[in-house]
Amino acid sequence: ASDSFGCDLLAHVDFSRCSALRVLSGFQGYTQLVSVDLGGCAALKTISPNTFARCAALAALTLPPAIESIAARAFSECDSLVEVEFSRLQALQVLGGFEGCKLLASVDLSGCTALQTISHDAFARCVVLTAVTLPPAIVSIETGAFSGCLSLSRVELSRCVALRTLGGFEGCKGLASVDLSGCTRLTTIYAFALTALAALALPPAVESIEASAFSGCDSLKHVEFSRCTALRVLGGFQGCKALAAVDLGGCIALKRISQGAFARCAALASVTLPPSVERIEPMAFSGCASLKQEAIQRGQLAAS
User: In the prediction, which pLDDT does 12 show?
Assistant: First the structure.
């Protein structure tokens, strides 16, 4: 249903003289609106939820440098939107709102020097999105931020030195590799379920790998845990059917292996646990047919 209140044929809005405008909302469902130029809105700080949602003809968008927040669904399902210029948005702190923009092919946020948070579902279901470049200041990528971006094959995380929480790449079936080596402050990972990752090296600061973080990564054969000296809670690898060995010997702070952590890892034949482990929760290794379950408490699981 349209929310355009009878203005379905509105094709142009002149914002050029709106120099005092601070908060923008109210254009959802304007199906004939083809371009939006907010460049003259020098005071604009916030684009509210659903502001231009379902503006199916919107193909050109200019955002103002002063913008600080783009809220959830602000530009969702703008089916004609191919490109968004983020390079001038040096005040942007919170970014959401582009879910379901099915023609959006790339996102370069490297110029967004103040950007700290990419919100839940921000670019979810942007099915032709192939590349994302993130800025060094980013602190949190929330769950679902890029979920279902089926064509996404490159995410530039190497400069994300401030990143602490990483979620958001669930179901990115084209994503085969990711470099987390530069994420020196990364503590929590939720991110990569149902992706094509084949190998992964985790950075030293990681403290928690959450449930389903890497679940269903059918191609994942190797995870390098050797530098994870801060890791305390480990979950999230259920259904990684190509994973054959897990060496946690270097995870000297590891306390808990969560419920279902490595469930249904059918090829898993060797697991080494550190002395620090206090609790292995139920079903942590269920369905791992190649493991001797009775050896779990001894800290070494060997092939049956």
Answer: 84
Q: Which residues of 23-62 are buried (b: 16+ CB within 10 A; e: fewer)?
A: ebeebbbbbebeebbbeebeebbbbbbbbbbbbbebbebe
Which backbone phi and psi does 210 adopt, to 5 degrees?
Answer: -80, 165
Indicate the pLDDT class of residue 33, thresholds 50, 70 and 90.
very high
Position 4 pLDDT exceeds 50? no
Q: Over 60: is that where the pLDDT of 303 sits? A: no
Closest CA to 285 of 240, 253, 250, 220: 240
Q: What is the pLDDT of residues 217-240, one digit of tens each?
A: 999 999 999 999 999 999 999 999
3-state secondary structure of 234: strand
Residue 114 included in any domain: no
pLDDT in tens, 132-188: 999 999 999 999 999 999 999 999 898 899 999 999 999 999 999 999 989 999 999
For residue 94, give the 3-state DSSP assignment: strand
Q: What is the spatial distance between Cα 85 and Cα 105, in angstroms, rounded to a whole number?
A: 12
pLDDT tens profile 275-287 = 999 999 999 999 9
Q: Are strands 222-224 and 208-209 parallel, antiparallel or unpaired?
A: unpaired
Residue 288 lies in a domain: no
User: How far is it, in rounded angstroms, from Cα 174 to Cα 129?
Assistant: 10
Burial 214-223 (b: 16+ CB within 10 A, else e): bbbbeebeeb
Position 283 in a domain: no
**Residue 294 in 3-state DSSP?**
helix
Alpha carbon separation from 103 to 1, 30, 85 (Å, rounded): 22, 18, 14
Q: Is 273 helix (H, G, I), strand (E, B) or coil?
A: coil
Judge whether 56 lies within some domain.
Answer: yes
What is the span of the domain harbouring residue 25?
1-64
At residue 298, φ and ψ (nearest 5 deg) are -85, -5
Number of domains in the chain: 1
